[in-house]
Design a protein that fits this description.
Elements: H1 4-87, H2 92-110
Amino acid sequence: MVDTGLLAQAQALADQATQKADEYSGLIGPIQRYIIDNFGQNGLYAAYIVLAVLLLFVISRLAKLTFSTVKYLVIPAVALAFVVSFFVPYSFVGLLPITVTVSSLFLLFRG
């Protein structure tokens, strides 16, 4: 009932994933040993904390950028295309690229 070709493909994919995981963990091991040799276990804990804080910082900046884009670019462009579509003979879909461009230029010159 189960296709053997599909099982073989799944096994090959799992083998590739295992190989990549071994390669990446092979990079982390020497770094961990270096930190432990020079700074001890507490240094390793500190390195983990620093990496976690940096990761959270990058994620927060990306989230802020995403929300700013939605707030200052997407919402005004959609609203402007909707309002203008009532007064000109073009459709909402035809006006949307123009309003996105106008909103982008406004943000560019404003910033």
